[in-house]
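Project outcomes to date are best conveyed with an example. Our students and postdoctoral researchers have been running inverse folding experiments weekly, and each run begins with a structure described purely in tokens. The record below, which covers 549 residues, was selected by the lab manager from last quarter's runs and is presented without edits.
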């Protein structure tokens, strides 16, 4: 038996998730949401405050802004598509602005259809300065969707000193169905030349949503734009391709990347690629389990989407307050950015206690199995076969770091499977986030049957997994369905769910929300293996035996 797994690069179509499991608001009437005070949100009108660039404003309901936000729309849309989202945020004391990208909205209506992204980035910079002048004490967040997500990303890289955080929804040009592809553009050039415009909007809308009411609203929006020339599409593509290089320039800014699980327009793998190019350590990625391409525009966000984004902003605000206090009380001669004991540093988002107030360190995991072209959700209480590919989905009750080791094979050798250059280096897990490990590849069973043992290690702090630590308390989960061969040390608890594989619902096939989604989909909470350790500051280690027949 080969004592290691073969790593096989696979197209990553799955995303790290957070539980945001509800449908978007109906289009027939304005969304009625609940404010932080428990009552319905007050309607807030869209105010036009500038025509150069065209800018809208939603005033905070209580007048005072604890934060400000600048929103940037997607291809063919306009600043007004954020009206419902802006109303919801303004009811949460956030001053919301939205700008028209050049060539769209008011620009297009006024006979200025030219797509000009460099000028649009200057517009964003100017607007950020105006917001800072209006709200000098309010941290400013940039939010963009699709094309707007890319504009927001590049604007954030250029204006890191003015921005407290970036929320970028599907900032990728990696589209399903060849949308925006070079061949599609080439055929149009041959048919009508570079400048002749054709209806791109209807094609985009068809992929972006399955909701007929949203399709009708989108295609018939008097402030929207559907027609583009091949030259304009090439300008758009060229701009979107800059995302990877620009992402490397974002080195410290907090960033949240979001994708809809039911997005049939943009590949999740493209969104993931942008996320992996970001240089900042302060980044999160989330999957809205029932959302399509649009999340923040046309009121497509759910109450859980709104809650998640609000909480993410709250955490950034709390951290800014903490940093202000830290700077005010730091000892003379001590660098704030260079701790005296780097090994004691906990990730910025980590807390000193478990997220649910418990006194235990706990993880759950399940196995995603790719077999004969189908995906299954299972645990290790089944037999695997040659050619199977797997990933482990891990979720913890606190922030920390995850590792996967090959614990034992026929020769008894040890190997670090993840993190690794081939399998992915980013191994930080946010509390209650489901993350698929390895992040960049799958583990493949070769043609040598036997039993493989892998060790899943979770720690509050970074560690060196290559150093064998015999003092670690380790639970052993056997392939035996009776549990008779499971070994659980004192102070640790182990439980596992139904061992029968569950085929992953086709509607959820392009995401990893299965472990945390709350949508009533059959099998979403099956197959979980749960392990806890009565030491919230310790290291949790689980040996998983995998039978290969």
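After processing, the design step wrote out the following sequence:
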């Amino acid at each position: 038996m080969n004592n290691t797994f073969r790593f096989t690069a696979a197209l990553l179509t799955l995303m790290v998730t957070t539980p945001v499991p509800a449908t978007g608001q109906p289009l027939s009437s304005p969304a009625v949401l609940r404010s932080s005070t428990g009552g319905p949100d007050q309607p807030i009108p869209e105010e036009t405050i500038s025509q150069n660039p065209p800018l809208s404003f939603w005033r905070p309901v209580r007048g005072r802004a604890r934060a400000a936000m600048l929103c940037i729309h997607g291809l063919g849309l306009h600043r007004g598509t954020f009206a419902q989202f802006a109303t919801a945020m303004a009811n949460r004391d956030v001053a919301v602005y939205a700008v028209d990208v050049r060539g769209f909205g008011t620009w297009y209506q006024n006979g200025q259809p030219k797509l000009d992204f460099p000028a649009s980035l200057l517009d964003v910079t100017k607007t950020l300065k105006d917001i800072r002048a209006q709200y000098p004490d309010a941290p400013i967040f940039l939010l963009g969707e699709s094309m707007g997500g890319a504009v927001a990303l590049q604007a954030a890289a250029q204006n890191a000193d003015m921005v407290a955080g970036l929320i970028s929804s599907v900032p990728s040009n990696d589209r399903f169905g060849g949308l925006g592809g070079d061949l599609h553009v080439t055929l149009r050039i041959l048919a009508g030349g570079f400048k002749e415009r054709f209806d791109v909007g209807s094609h985009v809308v068809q992929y972006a949503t399955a909701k007929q009411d949203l399709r009708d609203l989108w295609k018939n929006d008097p402030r929207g734009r559907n027609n583009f020339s091949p030259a304009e599409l090439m300008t758009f593509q060229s701009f979107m391709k800059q995302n990877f290089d620009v992402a490397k320039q974002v080195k410290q800014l907090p960033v949240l990347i979001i994708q809809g699980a039911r997005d049939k327009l943009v590949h999740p793998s493209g969104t993931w690629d942008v996320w992996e190019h970001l240089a900042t350590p302060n980044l999160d990625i989330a999957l809205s389990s029932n959302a399509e391409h649009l999340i923040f525009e046309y009121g497509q966000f759910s109450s859980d989407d709104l809650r998640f984004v609000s909480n993410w902003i709250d955490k950034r605000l709390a951290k800014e307050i903490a940093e202000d206090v830290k700077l005010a009380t730091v000892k003379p001669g001590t660098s704030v950015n260079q701790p005296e004991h780097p090994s004691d540093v906990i990730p910025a988002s980590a807390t000193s206690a478990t997220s649910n107030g418990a006194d235990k360190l706990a993880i759950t995991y399940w196995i995603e199995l790719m077999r004969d072209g189908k995906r299954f959700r299972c645990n290790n209480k089944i037999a695997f076969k040659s050619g199977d590919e797997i990933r482990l989905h891990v979720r913890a009750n606190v922030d920390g770091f995850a590792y996967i080791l090959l614990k034992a094979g026929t020769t008894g050798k040890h190997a670090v499977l993840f993190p690794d250059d081939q399998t992915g280096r980013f191994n930080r897990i946010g509390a209650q986030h489901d993350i698929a490990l390895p992040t960049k590849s799958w583990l493949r069973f070769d043609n040598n049957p036997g039993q493989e043992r892998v060790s899943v290690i979770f720690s509050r702090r970074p560690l060196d997994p290559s150093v064998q630590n015999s003092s670690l308390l380790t639970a052993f989960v056997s392939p035996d369905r009776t549990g008779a061969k499971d070994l659980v040390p004192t102070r640790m608890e182990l439980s596992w769910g139904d061992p029968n594989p569950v085929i992953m619902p086709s509607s959820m096939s392009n995401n990893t929300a299965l472990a945390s989604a709350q949508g009533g989909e059959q099998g979403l909470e099956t197959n979980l293996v749960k392990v806890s350790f009565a030491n919230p500051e310790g290291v949790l280690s689980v040996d998983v035996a995998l039978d290969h027949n």
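Residues 47-321 form a domain with the Rossmann fold fold (CATH 3.40.50.1820). Residues 473 and 490 are 9 Å apart (CA to CA). The training component of this project remains on track.
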